[in-house]
Amino acid sequence: MPLWRNDRGEENAMKQTLSLVTLAVADMDRACRFYCDGLGWEPAMRTDEVTFFQMNGMVFGLYLQSAFEEELGSKMDPSAHGIALAHNVAAKDEVDAVMDLAQKSGAKILKSPVEREWGGYSGYFTDPDGHAWEVAWNPFWTISSEGYISVAPQ
Amino acid sequence: MPLWRNDRGEENAMKQTLSLVTLAVADMDRACRFYCDGLGWEPAMRTDEVTFFQMNGMVFGLYLQSAFEEELGSKMDPSAHGIALAHNVAAKDEVDAVMDLAQKSGAKILKSPVEREWGGYSGYFTDPDGHAWEVAWNPFWTISSEGYISVAPQ
């Protein structure tokens, strides 16, 4: 499928958005004492394994490292840095299209897209420096036309 | 100075925004072949050392690792992961206030705030898992009341 049309008129670009930054954490209670109690941030969603904060048009997440490794399907590669950037798309089949584009552009496929337990569909690639990006379709999150993302449906 | 008043009515919270995600890259040309040519992204600013992309209300940056290390004032700690999150503030003295709050909350000060060659003022802390955050005042970038940030002044 065609992807995003950029300002140069190219019709198969990855939309220039960053949806979610997720940090792997060793201890969720310790991380929340810092972010929630210390810095005063309010989680939009919190479980034992994951905490999401609604930020300025995007989402910041904390993910228990062991659960993160389960999602990646492998022990965390030190080159994956315990952090992931995410690019969310509005339609499920865009996930494969973006992953294909990334691979053609020189990305390494870290984890091919699969159906996720939480109801979405996502895969991971790493860029030429080894930084991990998730490409995800999440039917429960809202994305505006500008790419602003919200944890809760509007 | 008082910081942000959160929804719980606490008056000294760090505003819940993420301004900039910066990846350290070993080779800027290689990184740009991937992001600019491959994915089709348009840099808002590009030099040999740094490239910024205007994203959805925030900024994505590539920073040459050697220059990044110069800014941090030290060789990159493997725990700093070659990535930094940034929280930009609207007033210079908020930088110190946010750094103080982070330190009181259990952060380690990676680099105390200093005047930057590019005309701003910033410091770095690491959270309890070692993830690096920059707290920055950048008089050339625009921040909306919601925390949306723009590379170019409006």
Q: Give the termini distance of chain A in whole angstroms.
A: 27 Å
Instruction: List how many beta strands of chain A DSSP finds.
Output: 10
What is the mean pLDDT of chain A?
Answer: 86
Q: How big a fraction of the residues of chain A is strand?
A: 25-35%
Number of helices of chain A: 3
Largest interface: A-B, 55 and 55 residues
Unreliable segments of 5+ consecutive residues of chain A: none
Class of secondary structure makeup of chain A: alpha+beta
Describe the structure.
The structure is a homodimer of 154-residue chains. With 154 residues, chain A is of the alpha+beta class. The first copy, chain A, has one domain: 2,3-Dihydroxybiphenyl 1,2-Dioxygenase, domain 1 (Roll). Chain A is built from three helices and ten strands, in the order βαβββαβαβββββ. Chain A has helices at residues 28-38, 65-72, 92-104, and strands spanning 20-25, 45-46, 50-54, 59-64, 83-89, 108-115, 121-126, 132-137, 142-143, 149-150. In chain A, the strands form two sheets. An eight-stranded mixed β-sheet of chain A has the order 2-3-4-1-5-8-7-6. The longest helix of chain A has 13 residues, at 92-104. The first copy, chain A, is globular, with a radius of gyration of 15 Å. The two termini of chain A are 27 Å apart. The mean pLDDT of chain A is 86. At the A-B interface, strand 1, helix 1 and helix 3 of A face strand 1, helix 1 and helix 3 of B.
